[in-house]
Amino acid sequence: VLMECEHGRLHQNTETCRIDFQPLAAAHGGPAVGRLLVTTFHNPWCVLLRFNTGDLVRLEECGPCPCGRREGLTGACIEGRAGNLTLTTRGRLVTERQLDEQLGSVAGLIAYELIQQAAGRYRLRCLAGRGSDVAPAAAALRRLYGDDASIAVSVETEILPAPSGKFR
Description:
The protein has two helices and eleven strands, in the order E-E-E-E-E-E-E-E-H-E-E-H-E. The chain has helices spanning 96-103, 136-145; strands at residues 2-4, 10-12, 17-23, 33-40, 51-59, 74-81, 86-87, 93-94, 109-118, 121-128, 150-155.
């Protein structure tokens, strides 16, 4: 559906599909962030179907890409999956990319799983390098979710994928 060019931008494959972009509300990152609805071409069984891929994309807002591609949608990055969105204590959506950016500052953090247990209550399960201090992870999450967020952090020996085979 999208292909990354040599400049790191994501270009729609206009020969194989049509993309309808549905922006999120401004309070949640729109109009630059939204979900993709895809209609594939050259498939005799699915000619009129639009697929909700579940992907959230941030559109490129820096003008034309230096690679020269001009057709279709151009994305700056994948924000994550709609099914993995969480909410701040004030009800604003948080994407996986935003979460990764915050937790990327925690030294020694190898992998994590964040579970929003209820409004304003979060559980962070993480894998950490030997001797690493993951205490800063709670502070990083409070910067993202709100000072009033209740955050429990636990260090695990493994984090297993979901039944789908994907890590969430």
